[in-house]
């Protein structure tokens, strides 16, 4: 088929990269034209005729990879972390000179996690109370999770914009810290349980009603739905997009 | 306070109406200027200087109530059922002649239920599978619930727009009907359990991940959050709005 | 009907007592023969021919009420708090002299809460990880709830008996206390949310599986199921029983 | 270490068998002395000095395997299906002649699933309403699941013993079958969702309260907890035991 999108995967030996190689190969509308590991020559991507580069490498490599792609007119879908404000600003400058080229940088490619976060932010303005419970496997080193902290910050900002104060809370005695962490005015609770992977609930309450938004990530392979969505949509979104929700037509 | 919104409640003796009377009285930014029951004279509402009329009466009365309100330049917030297409068309015509006046007709005033339905519709486009479980007290006469059917229809339409077919399902043997109802291509399951009030879950699944949107309605008083939101916002929304989500600033 | 159980309720004006009056009246196999408030004469209970006394009074009155009942050969079902070890020991002594008489003292009459606690204790011996999440209305003054603390203690003791150590937990960084309280080696998390009443989850995890035991208390009336179970069963359980689970035939 | 239990695994190439080989090798108190596949000689198990045989083969082989084991004084832990009443009766006869030997036949080795089923049975006697929701991946061929049907039967029998009738249900109109299957008088609902593995909820309701018992099986490896429990306990349970709960000290 001539009109399949030609895709190159960078970081083919990593956990995410190897899943991406498989996912692109399995997708009937995509064609894997190159898959590079550490030390391979980026020029191969151009020679193979790639249209979209998927970067799932490491923070020390991702900036140069994306710079190279944009310089050669290739779109990029990036799941690597390490893009701080300076790096984003430089990339925006470069893209201003390459008007048809699109780059998506997404900290999370699980469609459900992205929606849960977005819906939490939207709903938080309409409820008296909001709290977050995140649940992970017991090998996790930090609490709360990065996703829970980001969700709490989005929720906190949304409530501020809506002129809402803190959730009501009459607690006078909590000697052992059962009420958990306070992140941006939102209580966050971290459960660690054998058997779990990565799960999060946003609990919202008004008088007489509750809204619960829960995301379960059972397997890393869930990220691939979002990577493929990115690959298929990046050409229609010139310039820089941060966050997969920018590609999800929520009518927002 | 001079700038409180002056509110009249129609249907003050009904279950919803009596809650609304109490809620308006309790709200510091609202003033209850009239509360009418069956047989009372609508002119009282005008004489009392009401700005917003809340109609929580019965299908046989609501059309005339709203017609009267609009004819006198009063905004209306309507929770009564019975507004079929003809009635809505006539109301739209009347409102075209009353440019500053707003009417909100909402089948459901529970903010959480409205958001759960909206989020279900939005998310359905991004998942392989969607099913709905609704749970109610065992005195309910019909299954599935009206809310579940409406949600399934919105979900079904959303998936059609996104070019998604039916959820995958290899079931070959189901002699007892355990797979539940099919509404607009979406499986709907109805649980009836002592102790429950009204609850609904939309379950969405992709490879490796699940998104769950759950609404619990514990008490009819939950509707008041939405009624008050309507009263406070109706003046800023001239013309006819159907559905509380039209007043919820989701960035839509 | 001659063979209905004749019941007296003490504390008829309290929240629990008034519910109990109604529940006894509504039960076809029970007959309410007396309902006493503060200051009424206990002798009325005897004169009315009561067989079972339900004590839902206050800590300062309950001991004398039960002493009086046992002295007159009446069974007692007690929901009042304030029974410390000394009081229980004295009651046991008194019951040793009244061989046919039964007393049930139960801190919690919600059948589901009692079972959730019992099942948590039983299951805890078979799982690598156990944590508890309790969720209450935001007017609650203390965290964690008494029920959650008691459950954690039962769980902790059960794990000790089974030779199980602490749940695995690699957390190195938790600057804000997201991991919650440690009660008897079990993490307990307290959520406070508008709209909720009293809810609790015990989460248990092994490699590849999770068991969740959740109890929702939507309304105080849930206690009546247990009170009636107590009234109907107390005559078959001579002596002192502490905890409603002593009357629940779990085959345990 | 001399006092490790010496274990032989039959069916080493199957999905369950290969997991069992790994689990026995990883357990410090067990020693894998033999692992047989199709066509291997059972005598190897005896020659290797096995004390416990784990049978995870196929229905056509399991009876002869267990007969051989018992004839040689070896304990057996059996996860293979296909043990109908006749086969069990013959095995009981054989075991009557081999007084010290124990055999465990378990249809389900996931500790959490076994407990969820047992707790459902116990709790069902104390609630007005019980329903079951099972959720599986969409490649499953039959609905409801075997585990859900068995749970419903246990629940139904438990309610019968307690003199409880059907759960209350006023449903008059259910044209699409949303109320699901009726198994032994218990409503069972089957959800099929991409991303899921095997999950089940028993929902129990009384006036004002709900008890939810949920089991999530995320990975087949969850069965190994039960297999190892069986291997470690079989010597202490001479004769035939059907069901892992017979080895779980619930105080039953």
UniProtKB/TrEMBL annotation, chains A, B, C, D:
Homotetramer. It comes from Kocuria varians. The active site is at residues 136, 140. Gene3D superfamilies: Dihydrodipicolinate Reductase, domain 2, NAD(P)-binding Rossmann-like Domain. This is 4-hydroxy-tetrahydrodipicolinate reductase. GO terms for biological process: diaminopimelate biosynthetic process; lysine biosynthetic process via diaminopimelate. Residues 112-242 form the Dihydrodipicolinate reductase C-terminal domain. PANTHER family: 4-HYDROXY-TETRAHYDRODIPICOLINATE REDUCTASE 1, CHLOROPLASTIC-RELATED, DIHYDRODIPICOLINATE REDUCTASE. GO terms for cellular component: cytosol.
